[in-house]
Amino acid sequence: MTNPWIVALSAVFLWWFSTGIILWRVKRADLGGPDDHIWSVLLGLPLLLGGVLGVHSTAGDPSVQGVYIAFLSALAIWGWIELSFLSGIVTGPVRVNCPPFAPMGERFWRAIGTILWHEMLLIAAVLVIAKISWGAENAFALWTFVILFFARISAKLNLFFGVPRIHTDFLPRPLSHLASHFRLAPMNGVFPLSITALSFASACWMERAYSATTDGSFVGYVLLSALTLLALLEHWFMVLRLPDQKLWRWLLPDAAGPKPTGHPDPTLTGRK
Questions:
Q1: Which of 33, 123, 210, 269 has the highest Cβ tally under 10 A?
Q2: Sign of the alpha-carbon torsion through 7, 271, 192, 169
Q3: Dist CA 129 CA 269 (whole Å)
Q4: What distance in Å separates the CA atoms of residue 147 and residue 93, rounded to the nearest whole number?
Q5: Of 186, 190, 220, 225, which is closest to residue 205 (Cα–Cα)?
Q6: Contact 91/113 with Cβ under 8 angstroms?
């Protein structure tokens, strides 16, 4: 499992599969009763617990196996937090549509209000993982989570300031109000900065992989390179006319009633 192509493809598959499973679950809950989203989050708690235990148990294990488990553990923690957000359980105090002609300042604070508790939970998770991993032989769980965290912030800023392509098909009903905080625009000043930062980070991880002296560190940096490149790709999905929603639509149940138009929150994911 040290072949760079296998490592990179593993990261791509985990990104695609984990995003698809979360989207499938929240869409199934949309079709169920009023408590289905709560049950999704509660039944997913072993994912969070397993992730924390995995980060702790691999902090001192720089082997290839330890690095893979650390990477998976970070994804597990991220996945549960995203599930809690997409289920509408951990979001923010603002749960209504933004007025269509609200001034920029009001729109900005309303947008923060839609995700405030979720962002605070993510920051808390970063601090917990940093406490466990900082200075440890295997800090790849921390760097995995940090990439996901900052890529998500970047994606949200771009959606707020405006991008050419905003798709919301995969937004679950509890988060339908989020679409009113997005903005369609030919371009914004944040997007070039996001692309530059993600491209630079990808190059840095690849350079670290090239100069790695152990199999474990090589695998870890290839995983981080692939994950950062996927975040870069998700940003380009907001600009280029690519049928990215087809990556997951085939495995989602058909929702009853009218559907919004678009694609998932691009952190991911998430995501998206």
A1: 269
A2: positive
A3: 19
A4: 26
A5: 225
A6: no
**Cα–Cα distances in angstroms (integers) from residue 256 to residues 39, 193, 243, in the given order:** 20, 40, 23
pLDDT tens for each residue of 208-235:
999 999 999 999 999 999 999 999 999 9
pLDDT digit string (tens) for 74-106? 999 999 999 999 999 999 999 999 998 889 999
Q: Measured at the alpha carbon of residue 170, what is the angle toward residues 166 and 174, in degrees to the nearest 5?
A: 105
Q: Which of 23, 21, 180 is nearest to 101 (CA)?
A: 180
pTM of the model: 0.89
